[in-house]
Design goal:
Blueprint: H1 3-17, H2 22-33, H3 43-55, E1 60-64, H4 70-76, E2 84-89, H5 92-104, E3 111-115, H6 118-128, E4 135-138, H7 145-154, E5 161-165, H8 181-195, E6 199-208, E7 211-220
Parallel strand pairs: 1-2, 1-4, 2-3, 4-5
Antiparallel strand pairs: 5-7, 6-7
């Protein structure tokens, strides 16, 4: 098995199950033109997030890490007309591109992109009384994942779903002696999930157009 096969299968799934969508395609084109890193989720992964939000009956979603707004659009499309998605993005240039993509998708009325380090903007959500959120998607800098998880729990209710992306790190997550800050952050993230009695969690390995990785999913009890 190799990357070419994984990508081919992802393409097959997307062609069969995900209709052509110029809005989402343009979001990727705009992100690439703006020099953003290609860290967005794959189309079938975006549809997966969309379906999770639908299954969860989400009315409020929190996204930690906006990038170009590709996953934001997938998630926001799962919301009802009076729903709300708050997305936190540290990089102002990335946020500007995301806002344009979200506007092009006709979702600006239910999506709010907040600029600044999430560790600074998360407390404001608590202070403003916006929480609890029904679904939280964590897809930002991995060294901060432990803090993001702690804040996600604070901003949750029983039944809230918390998803962590890119948690396998090409298998390096099993290396307890790693000095990679991303791996250390993800491992501490798993420790906190395992230790917290309010969380019922698991994790899944994935292969696809984005390579070998995976995600965690937890429900707040």
């Amino acid at each position: 098995m190799n990357q070419a096969i994984w990508s081919s299968v992802d393409n097959y799934f997307s062609e069969k199950l995900i209709p052509k969508d110029t809005v989402l395609e343009n979001a990727l084109i705009t992100s690439d033109a703006g020099g953003l890193p290609q860290h967005n989720v794959a189309p079938n992964q975006g549809k997966f997030l969309h379906l999770l939000a639908k299954m969860n009956g989400s009315k409020k979603i929190l996204e930690i890490g906006t990038l170009g707004g590709y996953s934001t659009i997938w998630l926001a499309r799962a919301l009802p007309g009076d729903g709300l998605l708050v997305s936190l993005e540290a990089n102002a240039e990335h946020a500007a591109i995301a806002k344009a993509n979200i506007a092009n998708a006709g979702l600006s009325h239910i999506v709010e992109v907040r600029v600044g380090k999430a560790i600074d903007t998360l407390p404001l959500l608590e202070q403003e009384g916006i929480a609890p959120f029904d679904l939280i998607f964590i897809d930002a800098d991995k060294p901060s994942n432990p803090s993001y998880l702690e804040w996600s729990i604070k901003l949750s209710r029983p039944g809230t779903v918390i998803i962590g992306d890119n948690v396998v790190r090409n298998g390096a997550v099993t290396d307890g002696g790693s000095d990679d800050k991303n791996v250390i952050g993800v491992r501490r993230f798993f420790d906190l999930m395992a230790e917290n009695p309010r969380l019922n969690a698991t994790a899944i390995q994935t292969v696809g157009s984005k390579g070998y990785d995976g995600f965690s999913i937890a429900m707040v009890d």
